[in-house]
Each structure stands twice: as structure tokens, then as C-alpha cells.
Write a structure and sequence with these properties.
The complex is a heterodimer of chains A (about 150) and B (about 160). With about 150 residues, chain A is α+β, with helices and mostly antiparallel strands. Helix content of chain A is about 40%, strand content about 25%. In chain A, β3 and β4 form a beta hairpin. Chain B folds into two domains: about 5-45, Arc Repressor Mutant, subunit A, CATH 1.10.10; about 60-145, Alpha-Beta Plaits, CATH 3.30.70.3460. Chain B has a four-stranded antiparallel beta sheet with strand order 3-4-2-5, with helices on one face. Helices cover about 40% and strands about 30% of the residues of chain B. The chains are: A alpha+beta (about 150), B alpha+beta (about 160). Chains A and B meet through α2, α3, β1, β2 and α4 of A and α1, α2, α3, β1 and α4 of B.
Chain lengths: ~150, ~160
């Protein structure tokens, strides 16, 4: 069960985590609780996997090159190909989705040339072609995703 | 961005250590001052490299099990205007313009929705469909049936 403090921390600190020497104390002062309570509540949220991390969110493509990649893999071969792709340290957000294009992942590289090399390597290793969907524009608005924590 | 900025991102992108003085811990790891770490992170926020600093919620654990990638075929000439409108919806977490691959893939606008039930997600899709109206020539919703791997954005070491 999430306490009111847990919910406040989850909802209010998706952005504006303080850039102060003692950020948990800063939050504690904002909320009128103790630093130890804030720190332990965040440790709790982290251990229970309600938050994946506390840290900076980096704008896509500000460092290196990346692309969303989609592949259409026959069901019988999906696990083999998915495992092969997940094993790449350059791959994150690998999802199976309900579509003819059933494997979707984000591929990260140092630059465009390395991205192409990785794609060719993946196509060669898996035996299937990959559809490259790099981001052309990011309609980003700086608002936290609104969480409903009440049900 | 210089080599030290890059090191700071590498040291923090998987998360700040959950200790009372996290920036000091990072500074010690990199052999620079705490003040330098904080100043550089502020500068990177101002330049847009760092979008925000915060607790990144795990939507799935919070109960948002229906993660739908909605994809839309809209006129390229209108996409920036339409994309901005879709991105402004409170339940859309990401919204991007991506290239088409004809004839296999006609969709150029991507928007992620998250629902606690399939119904909730479908309602969100309906709101996007209404907003786009006749500008959306076709669309699909691709739900994730399985999370095979999920890590934050990482840069090579």
C-alpha cells in the first residue's frame, strides 16, 4: 500500500527533483516531514519498483544516434530473435507488440555510422530485415505524466 | 557538452545513488567537486540535454498494464501542428514524428498511451481520434504483449 507521502513523492517529483547538496532535505522542507522519512520512502518506492530510478532524463538524440526499429518475425522464431536482440547492450525498450511488425526496440549508437553497422549486423544475425523509424520530430511538452494512484 | 558532461551523464543516467548527498557521491566517483556536478547539471538542463531530473515512475507496477503505441497516418504538411496538439493531452507520454515506409508502413505520427484497463486505453485512443478527426486517414494501436527488455536511455561507456 502506498502512503500519502509515497503518493506525493511519486506524483510531485517526476520533475524538479532538487539540484541542491541535500535534495531529500529540500523535499522534506517542502512537505513538512523529516529528511529521513523522505529518503526511506524513496528507498521503499525504489525497492518495490514503483520508480525505476531517480535521476536525469536525457533528451533523445542529444548524445549519439538512436532509432526505433520494427521487425516482422514469424511467431515460431520470435523468442530466438528477441533474445538475440535483447542481448545487445545498445538495445533498450524491446517489446513484443500485437501486429505483423511484432518486435519493437530502440537501438542506440555513438553516431549514425555505428547505427547502420548495428542494423546490418542484426539483420544478418537474425535473418530478417529491420524497419528503421528514427525520430524526425519530438512533440515534447514538459509535463509529468499524470498518475492515478487511487485505484 | 564536453567530456566531463558526458561522464556526469554516464554516471547518473541509471539513477543517482539513493543517499542523502547524491551529487557529492557522483562528484567523488568522478574526482570533481560537488559544486561542479551541480552547476553542469543545471547548464545541461538549460541547454536541453537534460529534460528533467526526477523520480521515473514504473507505469506497469503502478497498474498501467495497457501500454498502447498508437500510430496515425496524417498529412505531412500538418504533422507539426497536429503532433503538438496530441502531445498536449495529459495521458500521452511521448509523441513523435517518424518516417513512413511505404508500402509496408504508412504511419508517421506516434503517440504512447497508458491505461489501467484496455477500456481506459481505448478511451484515450478515441480522444486522439476525435482530436485528429478527418486529418487521420488511418490508425492502429499496437499493445505490448510482452516487455522483453526495458532499461533507461543509455549512452555507450
Amino acid at each position: 500500500m502506498l502512503s500519502p507521502l509515497h503518493k506525493q513523492l511519486l506524483n510531485n517529483y517526476q520533475q524538479d527533483f532538487p539540484l541542491t547538496a541535500t535534495p531529500y532535505l529540500t523535499i522534506a522542507e517542502q512537505l513538512g516531514v523529516s529528511e529521513a522519512e523522505v529518503l526511506s520512502a524513496f528507498q521503499n518506492l525504489s525497492q518495490q519498483n514503483y520508480i525505476s530510478r531517480i535521476g536525469p532524463v536525457i533528451a533523445p538524440n542529444s548524445i549519439g544516434a538512436s532509432a526505433l526499429v520494427a521487425m516482422a518475425i514469424p511467431e515460431a522464431d520470435l523468442q530466438r530473435v528477441a533474445d538475440l536482440i535483447s542481448a545487445y547492450p545498445n538495445v533498450n525498450h524491446n517489446y513484443e507488440r500485437e501486429n505483423r511488425f511484432n518486435l519493437w526496440f530502440v537501438l542506440m549508437a555513438d553516431d549514425a555510422a555505428q547505427l547502420e553497422t548495428l542494423i546490418s549486423e542484426i539483420e544478418q544475425q537474425t535473418g530478417y530485415s529491420a524497419m528503421l523509424l528514427p525520430m524526425l520530430a519530438d512533440y515534447y511538452i514538459n509535463l509529468g505524466f499524470e498518475l492515478n494512484l487511487n485505484d | 557538452m564536453d567530456a566531463i558532461d558526458r561522464q556526469i551523464i554516464q554516471a547518473t543516467q541509471a539513477g543517482l545513488p539513493l543517499v542523502a548527498e547524491p551529487y557529492q557521491a557522483v562528484a567523488e566517483q568522478l574526482g570533481i567537486s560537488t559544486e561542479q556536478v551541480m552547476q553542469r547539471m543545471i547548464a545541461m538542463q538549460n541547454s536541453g540535454v537534460i529534460r528533467r531530473i526526477g523520480a521515473v515512475p514504473n507505469h506497469y507496477k503502478i497498474g498501467y498494464r495497457y501500454n498502447g503505441m498508437t500510430v496515425w497516418d496524417v498529412d505531412d504538411a500538418l504533422i507539426d501542428e497536429l503532433g503538438a496538439q496530441v502531445a498536449a493531452l495529459p495521458f500521452v507520454s511521448h509523441c513523435y514524428h517518424r518516417p513512413r515506409h511505404l508500402p509496408d508502413w504508412r504511419y508517421n505520427l506516434f503517440a504512447m498511451v497508458h491505461g489501467k484497463s484496455e477500456d481506459a486505453a481505448e478511451q484515450q485512443v478515441a480522444i486522439i481520434a476525435e482530436l485528429l478527426g478527418a486529418h487521420a486517414r488511418d490508425h492502429q494501436v499496437l499493445y505490448s504483449s510482452k516487455i522483453l527488455k526495458k532499461t533507461g536511455l543509455r549512452i555507450a561507456g
